[in-house]
Design goal:
There is one protein chain. This protein has 79 residues and is mostly helical. It has four helices and two strands. Strands 1-2 form a two-stranded antiparallel sheet. Helix 1 packs across helix 2 and helix 2 crosses helix 3. The chain is globular, with a radius of gyration of 12 Å.
Length: 79
Amino acid sequence: MDLRKMTTIAAIADFGSFSRAAAAVNLTQSAVSQQMRELEEFLGVTLFDRETRPPKLTADGRAYVDLARSVLSEHRSYM
């Protein structure tokens, strides 16, 4: 599991856009987009409906955000 990508997708869910999430996680918008494409490819699912502006999480995307938040919370508890 890639904690950085989990942090990024959680930020997208929290801030509602790739650009605001990018600022929150100290990346460029293009780096955020690239991370999300890589994550979708790795998981074999579509996480975002990119036909909307800004892109919206799909049902799979929302489920993955829930998982990511759980993993990140668990990880923080060990730090």
